[in-house]
C-alpha cells in the first residue's frame, strides 16, 4: 500500500456551496467532463424561508442523488453502514482514496482546522477529502473555512475520526447521514457532448423567469415550490433588502455571491465555447456580459461592505443597483438568443 496519495483536484468556477464545489473540483480535472459542466449551470432558482434563503443552480448534483454522467456509478453510503463495517472511519477514507475515490462526508468542524467552528463550537458541516499522508498522519481536504471561502486544509487521522463520530444526524434520512464517493466514469464521460441547444434553452428559461422543472419533476419527490426562478430573483432580493432594512428578516450575503459567480461562469463558458469551436458569441454580446459580471461583483462587494461596517449607505446603493443590473443582463441575453436564432436560420439556408 502507498504511504502517500493525492488525487488530482482543480479549482471550480462554482464554489458557493459544497454540493457543487466538491464534485466540480473533480470534474474540472478532466477535459471530457467539462463538456457537461459548461452545458449546464445556467438556470437559477431561489428557495427556502426568511431565516434560510438560498439561491442555487438548477443542475443535477450527486448529493441529491441525481445523475451526473461523468460520475455515474459513484456510490452514496449511509453513515451507519460505514460505522458498522469500519470501526475506524480514517481507515475507510484511506482505503477509498487508495482505490481512487474522492470522499465527501459530514464532520464536526470543531476538529477541522481552518473552519469557523475549529476548537470553538460544534458545527456539523461537509468536507471533501482527496489525499492522505501516512508519515504525517494527515488527510488533505477542502472545506469552507473561517472566511467562508472554499479552500484547502489538512486534518490529522485522529481528528477526522473524532469529527466523523462526534455528532449524530437527527435521523437516518437526514442529509448529514450520508457519505459520497466520487470517481470519474471513463466510459460515460467520454460520450458527454457539449449541448448548445440545451444551453440556449436554459438561458431562455432564465431570462423569462420560467421554471425549468420539466425533467427533474419526473423523479423528484413533492416539495415546496421555489420562491423565484431566473431573473425574478433580482426582484425577490430587492424585497429582502427592504425587509431587512425594516428589521423584519436577516439578509444573507450568499445570494449576492451566487449572482456574481453565475455571471463569471457565463463568461468563462463563452470563452470555453470559442476555444473548443462549439459556438462563438459576438464581441458586442461578450463585452455586454463582461459588464454584467463587473456590476454583479460590485453588488457582491457592497453586500460584504455592509456587513463589515453596518453602514446603511452600502445597503441603499445595493438596492439602487439591483433592478438596473437585471435590465442590463436581460438585454444582453436577448441579444445572445437573437444571435443564436439567426445562426440557426443561416445554417438552414
TrEMBL record:
Domain of life of the native organism: Bacteria
Protein name: Uncharacterized protein
Amino acid at each position: 500500500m502507498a504511504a502517500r496519495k493525492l488525487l488530482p483536484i482543480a479549482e471550480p468556477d462554482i464554489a458557493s456551496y459544497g454540493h457543487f464545489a466538491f464534485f466540480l473540483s473533480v470534474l474540472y480535472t478532466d477535459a471530457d467532463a467539462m463538456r457537461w459542466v459548461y452545458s449546464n449551470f445556467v438556470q437559477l432558482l431561489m428557495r427556502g424561508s426568511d431565516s434560510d434563503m438560498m439561491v442555487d443552480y438548477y443542475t443535477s448534483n450527486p448529493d441529491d442523488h441525481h445523475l451526473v454522467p461523468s460520475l455515474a456509478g459513484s456510490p452514496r453510503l449511509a453513515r451507519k453502514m460505514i460505522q458498522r463495517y469500519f470501526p475506524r472511519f480514517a481507515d475507510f477514507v484511506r482505503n477509498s482514496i487508495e482505490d481512487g475515490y474522492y470522499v465527501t462526508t459530514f464532520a464536526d468542524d470543531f476538529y477541522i482546522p481552518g473552519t469557523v467552528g475549529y476548537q470553538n463550537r460544534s458545527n456539523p458541516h461537509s468536507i471533501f477529502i482527496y489525499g492522505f499522508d501516512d508519515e504525517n498522519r494527515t488527510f488533505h481536504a477542502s472545506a469552507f473555512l473561517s472566511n467562508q471561502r472554499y479552500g484547502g486544509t489538512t486534518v490529522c487521522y485522529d481528528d477526522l475520526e473524532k469529527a466523523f463520530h462526534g455528532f449524530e444526524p437527527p435521523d437516518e434520512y437526514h442529509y448529514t447521514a450520508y457519505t459520497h464517493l466520487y470517481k470519474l466514469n471513463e466510459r460515460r464521460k467520454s460520450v458527454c457532448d457539449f449541448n448548445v441547444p440545451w444551453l440556449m434553452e436554459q438561458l431562455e428559461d432564465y431570462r423569462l423567469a420560467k421554471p425549468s422543472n420539466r425533467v427533474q419533476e419526473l423523479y423528484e419527490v413533492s416539495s415546496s415550490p421555489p420562491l423565484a426562478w431566473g431573473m425574478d430573483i433580482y426582484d425577490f432580493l430587492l424585497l429582502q433588502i427592504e425587509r431587512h432594512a425594516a428589521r423584519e428578516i436577516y439578509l444573507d450575503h450568499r445570494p449576492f455571491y451566487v449572482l456574481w459567480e453565475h455571471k463569471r461562469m457565463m463568461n468563462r463558458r463563452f470563452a470555453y465555447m470559442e476555444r473548443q469551436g462549439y459556438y462563438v458569441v459576438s464581441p458586442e454580446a461578450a463585452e455586454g456580459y463582461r459588464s454584467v459580471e463587473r456590476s454583479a461583483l460590485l453588488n457582491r462587494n457592497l453586500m460584504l461592505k455592509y456587513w463589515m461596517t453596518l453602514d446603511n449607505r452600502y445597503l441603499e446603493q445595493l438596492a439602487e443597483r439591483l433592478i438596473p443590473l437585471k435590465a442590463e443582463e436581460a438585454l444582453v441575453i436577448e441579444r445572445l438568443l437573437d444571435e443564436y436564432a439567426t445562426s440557426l436560420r443561416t445554417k438552414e439556408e
